[in-house]
Amino acid sequence: MDKVIEITNRAVADYGFRQAVMYGAQDIGRRWGLTETEQAVLEGTAVDLLTALPIPVPPADIPAEQARLEAQIRAAG
After folding, report:
1. Cβ–Cβ under 8 Å, residues 29 and 7
2. Is 55 exposed, middle or buried (0-12, 13-18, 19+ CB in 10 A)?
3. Is the pLDDT of residue 77 over 90?
4. Which of 45, 46, 60, 63 could form a disulfide with 76 if both were Cys (CB 3.0 to 4.6 A apart)?
5. Angle at 24 between CA 15 and CA 54, to 5 degrees
6. pLDDT tens digits for 26-58?
7. How far apart are CA 56 and CA 32, in angstroms?
C-alpha cells in the first residue's frame, strides 16, 4: 500500500495531481505499476477520500489529512 499512500499524499498537497488521480485512477495506477489490490484501493477508498477533501487543502492541514488518509488506506488494504 506504500505506493497508494505516496500517491494520495501527493494528491492531498497538489490539487492538480488530485484531479489527475480522481479522474484518471486507472492511468495513474498503470504508470505507478500498482498491483490489482493496490489499484482497487486507489480506485475505491483513495478516490472517495480525495473527493471529500476541501479545495484546496489548507497548507496547515496537509500533514494531518495525509496521516488520516494513510490510516484509512492501510485499514482498507
Report:
1. no
2. exposed
3. no
4. 45
5. 30
6. 999 999 999 999 999 999 999 999 999 999 999
7. 24
Angle, CA 48 vertex, CA 56 and CA 36 arms, to 5°: 125
18-27 contact pairs (CB < 8 A, 24+): 18/50, 18/53, 21/46, 21/47, 21/50, 22/47, 22/50, 22/51
Confidence of residue 60 (pLDDT cuts 50, 70, 90): very high
Across residues 5-30, what is the average pLDDT? 97
| Residue among 27, 1, 25, 31 at smallest CA distance from 11 | 25
Give the predicted TM-score (pTM) of the model. 0.95
Q: Where does the chain have alpha helices with state H?
A: 2-13, 15-23, 25-32, 36-41, 47-51, 62-76
